[in-house]
Amino acid sequence: MSGRINKPAGKPQTPSPLVKSSAQSKRGLNTRSPVLSPTTYKSPHSAGKSLKLKDSSITSIDVLDSPTGSSLCRSLFDLEKCPCNLSQESWLIDCSKCRQYWHTKCVTLDGLSKKDYNKIVNWLCPFCYTAPVSTADFSNDASCLTCRNTKTLRDANHAFEVSAAAAKIKSVINIGDISGPSDSLLSQENSIRCIESEMKQMNEACQTDIRKLINEVCQLKTELTNLSSTGPDTLHASHHSSESTEQLLATISCKIEALSINESSITAGLNELKQSVASLRSTDPHPTVPSRPPLPPDSNPIFPVHPTRVPRTGCEIPHVPHRQIPVSDTKHEFLEQTEANELKVFFDSCSFKPESGHSVMSFGSPYQYTGSKSSSNVPPIPDILKPLLERINNVQSELYRSLYPDQPFLTPPEINSCLVNKYQGSDSFLPRHADREMTIHPESSIFTISLGQSCDVTFTERESGTESSHPCPDRSLYIMSRRSQEVFDHEIEKGSMPAGTRYSLTFRCISWTHNNSTCLIGDSNTRFLRFGSNKRGTFGEQMPGQKFWAPKLKDIDPVSCMGYSNVVLLCGINDIKESQIQCESDVADCYTLLKQKIKQIKLLSPCTKAVFVCQLLPTKDLTLNRKVNDFNRLIHFDLFPSCKDVEYVEGFRQFVCNRVLAAELSMHLDRHGRFDMLHLNRAGARVLASLIKQSVFLRVHGGVDKRRHTGRVNGRLYSSVVEARLHPSGMVDGCQV
Ligand SMILES: O=C(O)CCC(=O)C(=O)O
Ligand SMILES: [Fe+2]
Question: pTM of the prediction?
Answer without folding.
Answer: 0.60
